[in-house]
Each structure stands twice: as C-alpha cells, then as structure tokens.
Amino acid sequence: MRLSLLVTALLLAGCGTSLPSKFYVLTADPAPPRFGAPAGSTVALGRVSLPGALDRPALARRRGGNEIVYSEEERWAGPLDDMVRRVLADDLAARLPAGISLVESAAKPPPGVTIAVEISRFDADETGAVTLAARWEALGPNGRPLGPPRESTIVVPGAGRDAAVVVGTMSRAVSDLAARIAAGLR
Predict the structure, then answer these.
(1) What are the CA-CA distances from residue 33 to residues 3, 40, 54, 80 (Å)?
(2) Rounded to a whole number, what is the distance in angstroms from the first to the last CA of the chain?
C-alpha cells in the first residue's frame, strides 16, 4: 500500500512539471554607417506606446482574426515597450538623413523634432508572419504637431514558426518602421 502511494505521488509530481521558459529580446538591424555633413538638426524619439494586450511577459501570437494566444514558455526578457523603444531608437539613429542626429528627448537645447509613436498591433500569425501597425507624428519643440500623423502597416513574411525566428522577424518589422519614419523626415 505504501509503495503504491509513493508511486502515485511521484507520478502526480511529474505531471506538474512544465517546459522551461525561453527568453527573447528584439535586436536592432545593423545598417551601414552614415557619412555626411555634421549634425545640424536634432530628432528625439518620444513616447512609444503599445496596446495593453501586448503589455505582458509572454509572446503573443494571433490565431485567426480575433484570437491572441500567449505562450508561457516563450517570454520577453524585459518589458516589450522598453525593448521596442530601444530598438526603434537604434534603428532610427542609423537611418536618419545626413545632417540629422538622434538625441535624448530631454536634451538641452531641446530637439527640433520629437517623434511620438503609437503601435496598435505587433504580433505574429500562425505562419510566423509579423504585422506591425503604427501611427506616428512629428512634434515641434513646443509639442505641437508639425504636420498630419502618418500611419503604416508593415507585414514581414515569416521565415518559420519557431519563437527565435518570429522574434527576428519582429525585429525586422521595427527596422522597417524606423526606415519609414526616417524617410518621412527628409
């Protein structure tokens, strides 16, 4: 009787184990170094906001049109909004037109232009394709818009469904957004 209780307890304990978590980060897309006139104009990356549905440690994947599935084993190594902001800043700095440099938003003197970004969608589908939908606007030193907001929906085809591949595809989508923002500053 004691042996059967011990075996049952061990079997139940084994059922409670879960797969180990894997942690992922977004990375900047290397761009060739820029050469040109010394920086005359300055740009800062201001607020970057993400939807609340993505404000969690688990990677989100879209299933069908309206369902989001979160993986408890595939997790972000830090807050996703911080990673997106850091990578977007690195990618943007590498893609700005010659003569324009990226500075901190609290720089003195204040930057000539501050970019505010609102991301409304940033996820992968079941094939690994990533969709990033964003709206951004350029604000002057006084905080007033310098023109109408711009919108982009970036779809990067998936190279696989593995989480590491999907995160790489997500990094490319952020790089594409940085390129579009930089092009809008020309």
Answers:
(1) 69, 18, 33, 27
(2) 80
pLDDT in tens, 73-91: 999 999 999 999 999 999 9
pTM for this one?
0.85
For residues 122 and 50, the answer to whether their CB atoms sit within 8 Å is yes
**Range from 35-44, 72-81, 123-132, 141-150 carrying the lowest mean pLDDT:** 35-44
Query: Does 3.40.50.10610 match the CATH number of domain 23-184?
Result: yes
* Cα–Cα distance for residue pair 116/92, rounded to 1 Å: 13
Largest Cα–Cα separation, the chain: 84
Q: Quickly count: other Cβ atoms within 10 Å of residue 130's Cβ.
A: 27
The two structure tokens encoding residue 105: 């938003």
The pair of structure tokens assigned to 124 is 């992968």
The domain locations on the chain are 23-184
**Distance (Å, whole) CA 163 – CA 58:** 11
